Every structure is written in structure tokens, then in C-alpha cells.
């Protein structure tokens, strides 16, 4: 596990560095999210037992990157999202290194390979009115649920879930939900909803397509102007008040998880690479 995971981390770090070259050249903004921010604060790099990099970009910069600036990436790096590939399951964008083929461990089928990648999430605003904010959040979550059910065959059914999700998954094992919901249609509906509110006019910065859903709604006061943190042999930008951000996601974020939980964080396994050692 350790060799496979560390090797993946180094490839992801190289992808990140290429991404940063474009960000700096065009004066774009990004922030480390979730486990990447936790890794920067607690480990000054990757969480040793984790194998991904999650970044968020304000919507305006995100659109510039996925529509134009991605073309400046090296030839082995490709972007993938629901607009570039109708078979892609997710809403977010991935920058993939096509030299490294991997398989998602939760999908046992060898045909479902992908490539080592980093994840880029768009960051959007929310209504400042409490009622409108509540309605908007739940509309997004409703369409996210329909998108997930449309991709039911690839849902990670082993992941820890709340009671409501467990009930929905149990029902979906009986009802042919993949024939009822069209995940691509739902992605476009989500896209339209998220773009309605700019972070420039909002009291919040939202990443509701992240793993923690509504928990990834962050007050502007926590984001601030951002801050630079050590990350492996380079640096990474994150929210200014990292303590409030990480506490809202993880609680006591400096406490290490059990060995069993650490093992569960390995998502991918390298099948092959096209790089001469």
C-alpha cells in the first residue's frame, strides 16, 4: 500500500505544480480543500494514507481554466469533466496524467480504469437571505442525489453514510433508478443552479459538490484573502482561518484516525505507467 500510495502522491504533486504554473501566469485563484488542507496543516504535505489532491477555484477563474487555460498543460495532462466526456460520472473537473493508468478500488471491474489525477471544484456563492439560502442549498442537494442515483451502479456502497442515505440506497437496490434518472441532465441542472450566485456578492463560499456537501459552505470571514502553507517540497494556498475551516469539517482535526480508517483512504491502485523508470 505504502509504495503504491506514495508513488501516486508524487505524480499528483507534479500535476499540481503544472497547474500552479498556469494559475500564476494568469493570476488565477485557488484554495486547498478538505483533506489537502488538513494535510498541509497537520503533515505539511499529503496525509500519509490519502491519495488525492482537492482544490477549489472561484467560479470565474474555474471557467477560465476549464474553457481556455487548460490548453497550456503538458501533453500528458488532460482535463476531464461532464462537458468534455458524457460518460464521466462526476460534476467536477479532474486533471489527469495519461501516463499513469489506475483503477478505483471501489469499482472492482478492471475495465473501469482511470488515470492519476487531481480534483478541481468550482466555488460558488449563496443567497444572503436565510430562507432563499435554505431553498437553494436543498435544490442543489436534490439534483445531486438524482445524479448519484443515475450512477447507482458505481456508487461506493461501503462508505459510511447517514440513515437517510442508507434508506435511499436500500430502495435503489430494488427499483431500477438508473433507468429513471439521467445523470447528465442532472449535472447541467446543478451547473445552472450553482452559477446563479457569485462569491463576490455572497457572505459564503460554497463547495456543495464536495464530499462533505453542506458542511463545505464556508463564511467569507474564514476564507479571507487566503494564506500560503507548506506542502511537501512546495507550497499550497488555503483559507486564511484554517482552524475554523478544518474544525467545521473534522472536529478535532489534529487527532489521527485509527489504522483501519487510514487503510480505507486508499482509493486507487496503479495498473501501469508509460514512464521509463
UniProtKB/TrEMBL annotation:
UniProt GO BP: glycoprotein metabolic process
Pfam families associated with the record: LicD
Domain of life: Bacteria
TM stretches of this protein: none
InterPro entries: LicD/FKTN/FKRP_NTP_transf, LPS_cholinephosphotransferase
Domain LicD/FKTN/FKRP nucleotidyltransferase: 24-251
Protein name from the UniProt record: LicD/FKTN/FKRP nucleotidyltransferase domain-containing protein
